[in-house]
Every structure is written in structure tokens, then in C-alpha cells.
Design goal:
The protein is α+β, with helices and mostly antiparallel strands. It has one domain (about 1-185): BLIP domain (Nuclear Transport Factor 2, Chain: A, Roll). It has five helices and eight strands; from the N terminus they run αααββββααββββ. It has helices at about 1-20, 35-40, 55-60, 120-125, 130-135; strands at about 65, 75, 85-90, 95-100, 140-150, 155-165, 170-175, 180-185. It has an eight-stranded antiparallel beta sheet, sandwiched between helices. Strand 2 and strand 3 (about 85-90) form a beta hairpin. The radius of gyration is 16 Å and the shape is globular. Mean pLDDT is about 85; it is low at about 1-30. Keywords: Signal.
Length: about 190
């Protein structure tokens, strides 16, 4: 059971990696000064886990693109801002995972209250609570992924990031019990 749980969390991390790999560079210079939390989460907040693809299509209001890398993964992007949401649909036709799409890591930095470091990332251990991590990193971070875990009564695992102006960031995966399962520090992109 533990191995299956770990595999699902790895899948969620890979899903976010697929979406992030489509994001350009470190900062979206064209968006600087124009971005608000409403802009960032415009599509993400319209999607709820367990919605059907048709419900997502209606809520978001733009045509999705289907992934060539992962079956039943659809991306909805606001062409004007570059922000959006990617959803994974299960075999019954319902959303089981949603991931934030953003043009560049640096575009999210305004939502991180203070710079984060590799040293802080190294202090995050498995089992730490969200409150302990908020205290360590100085803020709530940004939810960028939410995934139902089917073998754990469809409880939800999330991924949060804390981003610096240069695009370096800490990513923390929270298991279905709300505690950290791991943290990674990503350096600024060249």
C-alpha cells in the first residue's frame, strides 16, 4: 500500500513536471506588473475535482488542447495571459487532478512573501505539517496541483510552491493527511 501511495505521489509530481516543462523561461517579462492572483487562478479555480470534462469546458469557456504525452490530460490556457489549468480525466470521465499552468516561474513570485532558499528546503522533512512549513517559509505558498488518490478513498494530495523573483523555488508535496511527503528546491533557470 505504501509503494502504491508513493507511486501516485510520483505520478502527481510527474504531471506537474509535464505542465511546467511547457512553461517558458524564468520570468514572463511581458506579464510583469499586470499579473494579479485573479489572473493566475482564473481557470484553476473554476475547475473542481469530480467535474466532468463537459463541465470543465463550460466553466472555463475555451477549447482545450489534449496532451500528446499523457492520455486524457487536457490543458486550458488563456491565450492573453498564458495562465490556465491542466486537468486529468479518469476512466469514468471525471477530473481527478488539476494543475496550474503559468508562463514562467517568476510570474508567480509576487505571491511569495519572502525569498526561499535551498537551506530551507533541506529543513523540510517528511511528516511536517502545513503550519510548520508556512512558519519556516514565511507564507502559505501557491497551490499548483490538487490530485485525488484513488486507493486512499479519493482523499486529496496537493503540491505547493514558493517562488523567488529569479524563478528559483521550493516545491512541497502534501499527502492526503496534509503533511509533507517531500520537498525539492529548483534553481533559477538560465
Amino acid at each position: 500500500m505504501l509503494k502504491l501511495k508513493s507511486l501516485t505521489i510520483i505520478l502527481a509530481t510527474l504531471l506537474i513536471g509535464v505542465v511546467i516543462s511547457g512553461c517558458a523561461g524564468t520570468t514572463g517579462a511581458g506579464n510583469q506588473g499586470k499579473i494579479t492572483e485573479d489572473t493566475v487562478f482564473e481557470f484553476y479555480n473554476k475547475v473542481q475535482l469530480d467535474q466532468t470534462k463537459e463541465q470543465v469546458d463550460a466553466a472555463v469557456g475555451v477549447a482545450p488542447t489534449e496532451s500528446t504525452q499523457l492520455e486524457k490530460l487536457y490543458s486550458y490556457t488563456n491565450e492573453e495571459t498564458g495562465f490556465g489549468v491542466s486537468v486529468l480525466i479518469n476512466e469514468t470521465g471525471q477530473v481527478t487532478s488539476k494543475t496550474l499552468i503559468y508562463p514562467a516561474r517568476g510570474d508567480l513570485a509576487f505571491m511569495t512573501s519572502q525569498p526561499v532558499t535551498q537551506e530551507q528546503s533541506d529543513q523540510i522533512t517528511k511528516g511536517m505539517t502545513f503550519d510548520e512549513i508556512k512558519s519556516l517559509l514565511g507564507g502559505e505558498g501557491i497551490e499548483v496541483s490538487s490530485t485525488q488518490i484513488p486507493f486512499d478513498e479519493n482523499k486529496v494530495s496537493t503540491i505547493r510552491i514558493w517562488v523567488n523573483d529569479d524563478g528559483s523555488m521550493i516545491q512541497v508535496v502534501f499527502g492526503t493527511d496534509g503533511t509533507a511527503t517531500g520537498a525539492i528546491f529548483f534553481n533559477a533557470q538560465a
